[in-house]
Design goal:
The structure is a single chain. With about 150 residues, the protein is an alpha/beta fold. The chain has a single domain, classed as Alpha/beta knot. Helix content is about 40%, strand content about 25%. It contains five helices and five strands. It has a five-stranded parallel beta sheet. Helix 1 packs parallel to helix 5 and helix 3 packs across helix 5. The longest helix has 19 residues. The radius of gyration is 14 Å and the shape is globular. The mean pLDDT is about 95.
Amino acid sequence: MKINLITVGKLKEKFLVDGVAEYIKRIKIFAKVEVREISECRTVEEEGTKLLAQVPRDSFLIVLDVAGVELSSEGLAEKISELNLRGVSDITFLIGGAFGLSDEVRRAANFRLSLSKMTFTHQMARLIIVEQIYRSFKINRGEPYHY
């Protein structure tokens, strides 16, 4: 399986850089991982076009969206497992910038995922989603994960 992470902007805080790097290292035990970053744009429409241009062809696109479906950790693990059983071998998680997502990005999504009803910075969302992807692989393998 391959996991793509497409985001707006670079991580700035060291604790986020270190945390994301640690979880990506852990995910690589289970899947190939590629991170693609685009620079911030003047409008969400321009950002949306640039983000979508980075999505690999035939990848299942999961867009992080405050208006998306909230899943538990087990629910995300089940979603990833279901995709794998359907023969999907390439999943892209897309995180928009500080001003949200364009309608074009929302329409392009195969699935819209909400991390919470709370608001997180897009940089913090990156750390949360890579941790949850790692947790999903551990859950799907029946391995304990409590750290």
